[in-house]
Amino acid sequence: MSQAPQLKGLAEALQGKKGFKLNMIIGLDGFVDEIVHLVDKRQDYAHFTRIPTIAEWGARISRAAGLSTNMEMVTVQTKLGGNGPILSNALLEYGVALTYVGNLGVPDIHPVFKPLAEKAKAVYSIANPGHTDAAEFEDGKIMLGKHFTLKDVTWDAMKTAMGGAAGIAKMSDECHLFGMENWTMLPHMSRIWEGMIHEVFPLMKDRAQRPLAFFDLADPEKRTKEDIHAAMGLIGRFEEKFRAVLGLNEKELYEIADVFGIAYDGGKCPATLEKTTRAVYAALGIFCLVVHPVHTACCVVGGEYYDVSGPYCAKPVLTTGAGDNFNAGFCLGLSLGLAPLQALLLGVSTSGFYVRNAHSPTFDQVIAFIQSWADGHLPA
Predict the structure, then answer these.
(1) Nearest alpha-carbon partner for 309 in 3, 8, 11
(2) Residue 283 C-alpha from the chain's centroid
(3) Phi, psi angle pair for 92, to nearest 5°
(4) Cα R_g (the chain), whole angstroms
(5) 58-76: buried (b, 16+ CB within 10 Å) or exposed (e) per residue?
(6) Is residue 270 within 8 Å of residue 307, measured between CB atoms?
(7) Cα(198)–Cα(205) distance, rounded to whole angstroms?
(8) pLDDT value for 357
(9) Distance between CA 65 and CA 162 in Å, rounded?
(10) Taking a C-beta distance cutoff of 8 angstroms, is the pair 251, 268 a contact?
């Protein structure tokens, strides 16, 4: 079924939201990302062909087993990285009044984060950033990270920077969304969530419309099932003062299903996706679970399941950060009071624009993108 009517309805709804005022707090990570291509054949000092797929890179690595080999990486871009900063960058482009807390550099903010800091309402940098070599291919990416500095992102450091529990409570009372990203890589994130629950929640006001709390685990495969299960319980506790939203990609969805002991068909198909998403949502007991596979996106809100197809791009210019841009669009949609289906479409439109243009869209640009998609005029 064509999504054109829904897209045209979304474009019209967004036109009516121009000039919106939203206040958000985002954190807690920060990385310097080097986007790299792997050299296949080099013609001269300035020209080379890249290894196009992860499978071909893997085969080359496998052939070196028992021997050795030399691989050349070419940096094509150095940019801000981390789930929180990329999400924030996209939200700032949309015009959100944003406060950031995380590891952007101490005592000085790292140059890659300066544009974010200049646009943000406030920045609380509590540690130095990590570093990622993001090896990009036509069929995905491999993130090679150096995470040592993330141990310095602690509850005590966050409280000290933000005026204690009372200061965090005041900011939380004034926000529409609090995003706490990258649980997997931040070793003290669960302790930070516990600090929020036990020290901040008692100081927060009760609001008729609770703010949103958005969570992105960032590939929890390397964490134990016990840790993941405990983290899911903490996310559920945020329902006391927030409307909790957990964002997952498809791989993460099935990992969380395993943690809850939810059986699912190993074959990837729409029926499996819907059944598993519904089951994980029920186990979590939160306001919203949203999942963004490569070609589609779905969510469950209030027990109702919604799904959309995305504007798939066969030859993306940039894929690192596509998921965070989806999250930015989806979170903006929920914060603006859009219907879940419209929020999903705004999410896939935001990421669809990003992978084609290597930057996040403005509010006017995403409306134009949605209108072009509805008219069938998007590039492949």
Answers:
(1) 3
(2) 22
(3) -65, -40
(4) 21
(5) eeeeeeeeeeeeeeeeeee
(6) yes
(7) 14
(8) 95
(9) 50
(10) no
Distance of CA 328 to the CA centre of its chain: 7
Cis-peptide into 107, omega within 30 deg:
yes
Buried b (16+ CB within 10 A) or exposed e, 303-331: eebbbbebbebeebebbbbbbbbbbbbbb
Closest of 342, 344, 347 to residue 325, by C-alpha: 347
- Per-residue DSSP letter, 198: I
Inter-helix orientation angle 250-259/270-284, to 10°: 50
Please tell me the pTM assigned to this model.
Answer: 0.90
Per-residue confidence (pLDDT) for residue 163, from 0 to 100: 98
- Output the six-digit token pair for 276: 């598993």
Token pair 């920045």: residue: 123
- In sequence order, which ranges of the chain are alpha helices (DSSP H)? 4-15, 54-63, 83-94, 114-119, 155-161, 164-173, 189-195, 225-237, 250-259, 270-284, 322-335, 340-357, 363-374
Going from the C-alpha of 311 to that of each of 41, 282, 368, 376, the distances in angstroms are 32, 29, 14, 10
Q: Do 169 and 137 contact (CB within 8 A), yes or no?
A: no
**pLDDT at position 267:** 63
pLDDT mean by block of 10 residues, the chain; 380 residues:
92 97 97 94 96 97 96 93 95 98 97 97 97 91 92 98 98 98 96 98 96 96 96 98 97 96 80 95 98 94 97 87 96 98 98 95 98 91
240: tokens are 């006391």
d(CA 105, CA 111): 9
CB 79 within 8 A of CB 115: no
pLDDT at 1: 61
Counting every residue, how long is the chain?
380
